[in-house]
Amino acid sequence: MIFGAGLRAFLMAVAPAAALIAYCVAVGLIAPGPAALIAAAVIGGGLIAVRRRVHAERAALKRLNRLSEEAEAQAEALRYKAAVADRIISSLPDPLLFLDAQRRVVRANRGAERLLEKSPVGRDVGEGLRHPDLLAAVDRALAGEGPQQVEVTLPGPAAATYIARIEPVDPPPRRVLSAAEDGAAAPVLLVDLQDVTALIRSEQMRVDFVANVSHELRTPLTSLTGFIETLRGPAKDDAEARAKFLAIMQEQAERMFRLINDLLSLSRIELDEHSRPTETVDLAEVLETARDMLSIKAREKEMQIALTLPPEGPATVRGDEDQLVQVFLNLIDNAVKYGARGTDVTVAVRARDGKRLAVDVVDKGAGIPAAHIPRLTERFYRVDAARSRELGGTGLGLAIVKHIVNRHRGRLSVSSREGEGSCFTVTLPLAAGADARRDGGRDGGRDGGRDGGRHNGAGGLHATG
Ligand SMILES: Nc1ncnc2c1ncn2[C@@H]1O[C@H](COP(=O)(O)OP(=O)(O)OP(=O)(O)O)[C@@H](O)[C@H]1O
Ligand SMILES: [Mg+2]
Q1: C-alpha 462: how far from chain center
Q2: Which of 132, 321, 399, 455 has its CA 20 to 30 A from that of 423?
Q3: Residue 8's Cα: distance from chain center in Å?
């Protein structure tokens, strides 16, 4: 093959030379003989050399083209990788800032722009993040003290706590910097701000919860231990004291029992809070059950529980009957407990709109100061802890209500006026196909304090966002 190609090249080079010589001989420019042969050989050799050179240059050109295509593909791959890295950095939830050796922000991702409200690029990092500990850590890292980590709470309308990690980054090699960039603008530090506010809050809640449970259990236990000691010692033979103390001891033991039951039911409710109930429940039946269960307690305080049901047919909601009974037992129990002796508690069902029903539980009692309303559904939160305990409360009732209402995709709102009383409103979605137009006329009267601002905490407490 190679030999064949060489021969062909030789013949192709020699043939025009031979033709030229033959022409020259024919017109008498060259005499036929050895001179003509030598001339033909010289011209043919020259032509072969020229052809070879042209070939070599063509091959070199091809190689060059291939190299340039490869270089272009590599550059494209690098641009793609840089764009992906860019997108990852900008979409990371943590605010990220790249700083140069002068502490100026060279680059900031979207999280950082959101935190600092405007782009910090080109400015000193201290202009946007005015926290002395954070800036001191940045300065230490710039001074070559290696990676730094500080916890900082940044002020603002929604103060948040961050773990700031400051890591030195290798600056790009000088030849990589474009002509427009000078070495000073190259990033040398990465500041990563991890928002740990929710983590700290939930840790605090856990600590508070354990402390509260321990405290709530310790109080009746201390009292029980005290009475046991008294009964074994000084009151050993005092029958009258024994009867009295045993009654108190029973009360304390029952209180511990209630507390544990409430805690267990709270954790059960929390467990299935995300699975929406599927039964269809008649709210009227639920309310009648709750009212009947509390009627004796109400009578002891000379109170009546007045129930106003929708005039037309059953009010059906999608729900868990036992849990809904628990909601209204807790709310009516509070209304009886904190309502004034001799007043009435009213429980009224009304249609909110075509999709929801609202139930108002209204008492005439001391009411709740506005500052307390947003915190009422926190576990163990009581406006007057001593009074609640005296009334046998554990402070978990409204926390249970909140979680059940959440599970039902409902809403809890409170309005209250000090010295007059409170209204707790539970709004629940109607069961599919149920007719909500059974009580349109009464809607809009009083819900969540929409009564000219007379009531505290207008809708300030919602079980759902
Ligand atoms: N109708 C109301 N009127 C006035 N204050 C109320 C009313 N309902 C609740 N509160 C206040 O809210 C606090 C929390 O109520 P919650 O029902 O969670 O606990 P509790 O009634 O003290 O105890 P329990 O766990 O037995 O229900 C109460 O301690 C009380 O201070
Ligand atoms: Mg209660």
Answers
A1: 19
A2: 321
A3: 78
Distance 407 CA to ligand 1 centre (A): 21
- Residue 310 makes CB contacts below 8 A (sequence gap 6+) with 284, 349, 350, 351, 438, 439
H-assigned helices in 301-384: 321-338
Q: Strands, DSSP E only, in 319-420?
A: 344-351, 356-363, 411-417
430 and 317 Cβ atoms separated by less than 8 Å? yes
Ordered structural domains, the chain, with CATH:
2-87 (no CATH), 92-173+183-195 (3.30.450.20), 200-269 (1.10.287.130), 275-442 (3.30.565.10)
Ligand 2 midpoint to CA 334 (Å): 5
Measured from the CA of 363, which atom of ligand 1 is nearest?
A: 1
Q: What pLDDT was estimated at residue 354? A: 76
Residue 50 phi/psi, 5-degree rounding, is -65, -45
395 C-alpha to center of ligand 1: Å? 6
Average pLDDT for consecutive 10-residue bins of the chain (465 residues)?
Answer: 58 68 75 75 80 91 94 92 87 91 92 86 91 96 96 84 94 64 74 94 91 91 94 90 93 93 92 90 95 97 93 81 97 96 95 85 95 94 83 89 96 95 95 52 35 44 49
Cα 273-274-275 angle, rounded to 5 deg: 95
| Ligand 1 centroid distance, CA of 417 (Å) | 15
The Cα–Cα gap between 306 and 361 comes to 10
Probe ligand 1: pick from 263, 265, 334, max atoms within 8 Å of CB? 334
Residue with tokens 């935190």: 115
Number of helices and strands in the chain (H, E): 11, 12
Query: Ligand 1 mean position to 331 CA, how many Å?
Result: 8
Contact 169, 71 (CB under 8 A): no
Q: Provide the residues around ligand 2 (an ion) whose CB is within 5 A.
A: 334, 397
Question: CB under 6 Å to ligand 1: residues?
Answer: 262, 330, 334-335, 338, 363, 365-366, 368, 376, 381-384, 388, 393-398, 422
* pLDDT given for residue 118 in this prediction: 79
Cα 36 to Cα 38: distance, rounded to the nearest angstrom: 6
Backbone angles phi and psi of 427, in degrees to 5: -110, 130
Give the CA-trace dihedral at 372, 375, 379, 383, to 10 degrees: 0
Amino acid 437: pLDDT:
42
Sequence-separated (6 or more) residues with CB below 8 Å from residue 451: 415, 445
